[in-house]
Amino acid sequence: MSKPALHELLSKARVYDLGQAYWPGMPVHPFDPPFQFYLYRYHEYVEKDLGKIEPGFGDAISLLITSMHSGTHFDVPVHMSQDYKVQGIDIRPYQRDIGFVDLPEPLHSMEKVPPLVLPATLFDIPAVLGMEVLPERYSITVADLEAAAERQQISIEAGSCVLVRTGYARYFETDRDTYLYKWAGLSPEAVSWIAARKPRLVGTDNLSIGVPNLFDAHRQLMINNGIYVMKSLTLEALAADQQSVSTVVVLPLKIKGGEASLVRPIALA
C-alpha cells in the first residue's frame, strides 16, 4: 500500500483510547504500593532562581512514584512464575535489584517488547447476555465466548490481540470497592480456550482477569504460553460503536529489566 493510500485509510479510522486515567487514590491491587503523584517544583518557587537569568520565567516539574501495575498496564511473562519457573525456565538466577538481567529466550523484559500493531477482536460478553455489565464475580464460560464469536462474527488469529469486555471499566473512577473486589472475569476453561488459539496479547477491562481463581489466568497465559497481558482497559466506546474488529496499537515503555509498564493503548477502527 502506498503512503498516500495508507494515510487516507488512517484518516478515515476512529481512534479509541483504551487507557484509564491515573491519579492519587486510584484503585490499585491491594498487594501493590499506592500510585503517588505530586508537583515537586512550582512556578513561583523556580522563578526566584531562573527569573534571575530569564525575568519572569518559571516552570513546574512533577514526581511520580508507582508500581508498573497501576491502572492500565502491560505485563510480560516474567511478571509471574509457578514454582519459580516461567515457560519452564527457573527465573531466580536472572533477578536483580535493577530488574531482570540476561534472560534466556524466549523470556525477555520490557525493553525487548517491540511496538505492537495487532489485529484485535473484542469479545463483548455483557452484550451476549443482554446486560450492560456482568454480575458480581461472574465467571465467563467457553459457551459465552463462543456465543460472542458467533454473534459478532469474529475469530481469534494467531499472533493477534484479544479484548474481553466485562463492563467493569465503568467502576474504575466511581466505585473502587466494586472494581477491586467484585469484578467479573474469565473462567479457567475460558482462559484455556483463548490460549489455545495463540494470541500475542490478551487485554481485559478488569484488574485480575480470572474468576473464580485469582491467578489461573496469569498462569495459563503468561507462565505457560508466553502471552502478553494488558489490564484495566476501558472498552466501553468500542463496545458502544459495536467495533468487534479493530487494530490495536500498544507502545510500552522500554524499561530495562522491567516486568511491566504503564501504557496508553489505542484501537483504530
What does this structure look like?
There is one protein chain. The protein is α/β, with parallel strands linked by helices and 269 residues long. It folds into two domains: 36-65, no CATH class; 73-268, Glucose Oxidase, domain 1, CATH 3.50.30.50. 23% of the residues lie in helices and 23% in strands. The strands form five sheets. It has a nine-stranded mixed beta sheet. It has a two-stranded antiparallel ribbon with strand order 2-3. A hairpin with a 2-residue loop joins strand 5 and strand 6. It starts with a helix and ends with a strand. The relative contact order is 0.21. The mean pLDDT is 94.
Q: What would a concise description of this structure say?
A:
The protein is of the alpha/beta class. It is built from eight helices and 17 strands. It folds into two domains: 36-65, no CATH class; 73-268, Glucose Oxidase, domain 1 (3-Layer(bba) Sandwich), CATH 3.50.30.50.
Please render the helix and strand layout as text.
Blueprint: H1 3-12, E1 15-17, E2 36-41, H2 43-50, E3 61-65, E4 73-75, E5 85-86, E6 89-90, E7 95-96, E8 99-100, E9 116-124, H3 125-128, E10 139-140, H4 142-152, E11 161-165, H5 176-181, E12 185-186, H6 188-195, E13 201-204, H7 216-224, E14 228-231, H8 236-240, E15 245-250, E16 260-262, E17 266-268
Parallel strand pairs: 9-11, 10-12, 11-13, 13-14
Antiparallel strand pairs: 1-17, 2-3, 4-14, 4-16, 5-6, 7-8, 9-15, 15-17
